[in-house]
Amino acid sequence: MYTYEELLEKFRASLEKESFSGKPADLYEPIHYMMTLGGKRLRPVLLLMACDAFGGDTDAAMPAAVAIEIFHNFTLVHDDIMDGAPIRRGKDTIWHIWGEDTAILAGDTMFAIAFDYLLRVDHPRNKDLLKAFTKMAMKVCEGQQFDMNFESEEHTSIPDYLAMIRLKTAVLLATSLEMGAILAGAGEEDIKNIFAFGINIGLAFQLKDDLLDVFGQVDIFGKMPGGDILSDKKTFLLLKALTIADEKDKKVIEQWFGDNTSDPEQKIMDITAIYSKLNIDKIAGTEMERHFERAIYHLDLVGLPEDKKAELESLAEKMMYRTH
Amino acid sequence: MYTYEELLEKFRASLEKESFSGKPADLYEPIHYMMTLGGKRLRPVLLLMACDAFGGDTDAAMPAAVAIEIFHNFTLVHDDIMDGAPIRRGKDTIWHIWGEDTAILAGDTMFAIAFDYLLRVDHPRNKDLLKAFTKMAMKVCEGQQFDMNFESEEHTSIPDYLAMIRLKTAVLLATSLEMGAILAGAGEEDIKNIFAFGINIGLAFQLKDDLLDVFGQVDIFGKMPGGDILSDKKTFLLLKALTIADEKDKKVIEQWFGDNTSDPEQKIMDITAIYSKLNIDKIAGTEMERHFERAIYHLDLVGLPEDKKAELESLAEKMMYRTH
Question: What structural domains does chain B harbor?
Fold first, then answer.
């Protein structure tokens, strides 16, 4: 069995061999740029880890891992257009360099290329793999639309928020694990449990992201805390604060909402102070742990010896206790 | 065997049964809107006709026909954003009603839904079908990028233009026929020839479109002639005129290029007069017929009795001799 680090290295080496080139150069250059920008490569490694845990051949699974990473990057390319985000992973985004039209088209092409890689997998259960992937793609799009809707909605409930991040973030992590399990020939019950493990890890992972944005350390790209606060993002922290704050604090939050120019530093300080007073960090931490524990519950149900599951459990823990 | 009209009716009836609904409604409403806007439904009917000609089961092929039509409409949704086109088929375009973000996402979702339909086909050669579809999707994106590049290019050659419409338009028609043939269990040589038939019909079809835009009758949506001239679209007509015009006429064309405000009617009249003087309509007609004849040459090579191919030949003729 491989460790997480070994599979990450294996994936990176495989990805480096892919050229992502073609004609016209104007279309493939942005695709190559995006695919070599870096990133955690978490999703393809989850696929390989699940495949390895169930005794599958990680080399044979590699094109599916590449497909998952291309798909993930495709969603980032289109999300960056919708968010008007000029920077990703410390570098300019595709729409910001090449314009929106090419960014739309590069994303579309990446979606097609993802299927192209998936079709390179030679496996008797290829159709199950494609079905899981396609279902996931639809759900991720639905999640992104829910996320956009929240921006203009008057009131977003916490269950609505969790349902959104389930679709937008957790389903992709869960499907990566599911596809690895399918490729290793896992049984139906095990596939269901590894999927449920992934969903709950994904929910916990996003809550951790929400927390780190406010209470995290400055990350390696020099990203400062408070980005979500400045952009009025409806995170778990904000929604929870609006639910439990008294009228005075609620008014402070609402007054800052939509104000991104007058005094950004004061805005971050005011909102963070309210979060701290209301113990929002602890509440979000508890919610995160609730999903983490549910994830471990499902991992325990997977019918594999403990040592086969140790790497997955240890990665999940690392994801929970990271500082950026 | 079915006639073209019967298969069109069959397809329309099948498509009507599909609801294209889901959550969030903000995402599926535009998809439903687009899929019920109408249109010629040419591509799915070509798929069914090829399937029928080779003795396949058109009912079993129906999900693949739906997939092709969804894919085609996905490309229109994204193209309309890139072109800034407010009207399609006489109705408002998706980005124009729901905004660009939702139009990007609705298109992405339609791409995924197309694969979802394709995966409903239960066929031993399902993987060949998916491979043909995925390869086509990549080529269509490449064609769209070439088309966008032409807009800012100083000089576009006629071979470059034909290579672009081959990718952007002809490959989709050809792949529709190819998929129908695969589903009917046709042999490799026959599949190659039906594909080549489709490519050449596609090229002829686009040249006909270019011609009709200038010399056609007012269509059922009241679309007036000259739209391509007004938008400075680099069609076969314009590129040919620039190649053979004398310095004086070339100057007139170049002076109007980029001028869309001063006097649109005069612009259309001036350019059309030059086209007529240079016999561009006859030259384009000859080019169109060259591809049409090549199409028929490949159809003749398909190893089927004449009566099995008669519907395809007659449809190709109708496409060439239509007046709008």
Answer: 187-324 (1.10.600.10)
